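Changelog-linked ticket: zinc ion example.
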Amino acid sequence: MDERELFARRLGISLPWHVEEVEMVDGVYIVFVIYVGTLVYCPTCDKKADIHKVEKCSWRHINESEEPTIIHCDVPIARCKKHGMMQIEVPWALFHKGFTEIK
Ligand SMILES: [Zn+2]
């Protein structure tokens, strides 16, 4: 299993999310994730929505038993006919509670 697969498992990432690259910089894992889907689901009503644009976001995870991890991802912004524009949820924030978004 390569590092990308390992991180995909560890972070709960599966299609349409994809771990594109993993780097180790000064003892910190930098994980680049991309969204490979062509549409998204509205986080409120769960209906199919268009991808309005993507937003560059980063998260940091610190866990005493593992090396610190930073995730970078262009997160799709859904445009729902009813609910407007909203960032969709990312799997690692749901799966792995220790992630904090870096603003
Ligand atoms: Zn909606």
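Closing comment: Example verified and attached. Residues 42, 44-45, 47, 80, 82-83 surround zinc ion (CB under 6 Å). The first helix runs from residue 3 to 11.
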